[in-house]
Amino acid sequence: MEKKLSEETKPRAASAKATRTRKKSVSALEKMQLLITVVNRDKSELYIDLLQAFEVNMQMVLSASGTAPTSTLNLLGLAESEKAVIISVIRRDRAKEALALLEEKFRTVRGGKGIAYTVPMSSVIGVAIYQFLSNKS
Known about the structure:
Blueprint: H1 2-27, E1 32-40, H2 44-52, E2 58-65, H3 70-76, E3 82-91, H4 92-108, E4 114-120, H5 127-134
Antiparallel strand pairs: 1-3, 1-4, 2-3
């Protein structure tokens, strides 16, 4: 009877160990964020290339228009109202330095003004998709 009980508990112990191992690997996952960048459309390629240096594996570019009237833009010295919205998936640990570089480029690139902010992602469906987005193979 003792032998039978110890054999029955072995699978449970192995299962508990596997669960602990999975919990450890889950806690090691990198959190992901959406990085939203709005820039003049003619500068979008520049910003897309800059963001790829931060292990951004997926970006989507949407065409947009500014909302200010042309007369207001001319008064401010801004002639461009055609915008691009760049939506990038970036790891949280890389987002701060990406935002710092974008802020610098917004100040230094001629006609390169824009805005950028992040939105936290709460989940991603599928291990393969997560590995692709987080650049963890």
